[in-house]
Design goal:
It contains eight helices and five strands. It has helices at 6-17, 21-26, 28-53, 125-137, 139-151, 175-178, 191-194, 199-220, and strands at 88-93, 104-109, 115-120, 156-157, 183-188.
């Protein structure tokens, strides 16, 4: 039985058009049933399957301190004061991670833009340095990771530096990889799959395809894969 249905995307689209507290409170039951409850059940059912990929990544069916991101935006330092996110985010982070800036798997649900993500987004400077050193030290292995990802059609995404990072030559054979600020791959998931009972299978398959990258990142950062 599918975890999500059309109501998921309809609610998010409606929220995008009515992003204010009064509207959300009037329609909160829709969020609780078609988004929150459905997502928590998906996380629960994914847990044992994700553990088979790696026992070090967590699937915690909680909206507070768990794998489901809160729907509420942090507007303290943003010019955009709209109170709610117009997407649903599920993050399956490494058990050793203190926040989202560590290796993890991600599911993004949004009308017209649902996707899988894997890797590390916006790592701390010390983590970026460790990953770059690992790429430089284990160039042949990193090339193997890239080959595997290319075969799985998992493209890299995220931001990069304009200049070569300090300590590396601009003529380095992997200079474009060393410039990366994010070490993530993404792949779109069509809405038909999101709304089907095949979503867990598809997500686990993508986790397995991204495993070479996750393993490399974990070892670079000194944590178990």
């Amino acid at each position: 039985m599918p975890w999500f249905d059309d109501e998921l995307y309809e609610f998010i689209a409606d929220l995008a058009d009515n992003n204010e507290r009064s509207w959300f409170l009037q329609h909160k039951e829709r969020y609780e049933v078609y988004v929150k409850a459905a997502a928590l059940q998906f996380i629960t059912d994914l847990g044992p399957r994700l553990a088979a990929v790696s026992e070090h990544f967590t699937a915690i069916p909680k909206a507070q301190g768990g794998s489901l991101f809160r729907i509420y935006r942090d507007t303290r330092f943003s010019k955009d004061k709209t109170p709610y996110k117009t997407h649903v985010g599920l993050h399956f982070k490494h058990a050793r991670a203190r926040d989202v800036h560590a290796p993890g798997f991600y599911l993004h649900l949004e009308p017209g833009r649902s996707f899988f993500g894997g890797g590390i987004w916006r790592p701390q400077s010390s983590s970026v340095k460790a990953i770059r050193v690992a790429i430089d030290t284990h160039q042949h292995r990193w090339m193997g990771v890239k080959t595997s990802l290319a075969e799985s059609r998992l493209p890299f995404a995220g931001d990069t530096l304009k200049r070569t990072p300090r300590g590396f030559s601009k003529d380095h054979p992997l200079v474009e990889d060393l410039k990366r600020k994010d070490f993530i791959v993404i792949k779109e998931i069509d809405e038909e799959t999101v709304l089907s009972d095949e979503l867990v299978d598809r997500f686990v398959s993508l986790c397995e395809e991204a495993a070479p990258l996750q393993r490399f990142l974990c070892e670079a950062l000194g944590v178990d894969y």
